[in-house]
Design goal:
Blueprint: H1 2-17, E1 23-30, E2 36-46, E3 49-56, E4 59-62, E5 64-69, E6 72-81, E7 84-95, E8 98-105, E9 109-117
Antiparallel strand pairs: 1-2, 1-9, 2-3, 3-4, 3-5, 5-6, 6-7, 7-8, 8-9
Length: 120
């Protein structure tokens, strides 16, 4: 009985520590080639699974392989640049209404962005 109570308390504690990533997030950033860009992330967490889309001037892209673990998030999207599909991998942390992400592509190119939660 005591073991079950402790296990339940630990599970509830983990849920309470998980960051709330649900909703719309907007980022304005500079890409490695110096271009100014904007992206909106529409995210939905279901346990540790993260789904949603990234909307930018390049259109919408569905999130693939999305996960949430506490305040850590990661996901990828596939974009087409000049007729070639490129996988963009996002990984970072959520703190309150701010999400800091590192975007990696072509295995060795990356840049940082900060997205702010948009009010509903």
């Amino acid at each position: 009985m005591v073991f079950r109570t402790l296990a339940l308390m630990m599970c509830l504690g983990l849920l309470l520590c998980a960051a709330d990533v649900n909703g719309s997030w907007k980022a304005e950033y500079t890409t490695p080639d110096g271009s100014q860009r904007q992206s909106t992330f529409v995210l939905k967490a279901d346990g540790s699974k993260l789904t949603g889309k990234v909307v930018s001037a390049q259109g919408e892209a569905e999130i693939k392989d999305g996960t949430v673990d506490g305040d850590a998030v990661s996901f990828s999207v596939i974009r087409n640049f000049g007729g070639q599909d490129v996988t963009l991998k996002y990984a970072g942390k959520v703190t309150g209404d701010e999400m800091k992400l590192k975007v990696t592509f072509n295995e060795d190119t990356s840049f940082d962005i900060v997205a702010k939660r948009q009010s509903s």
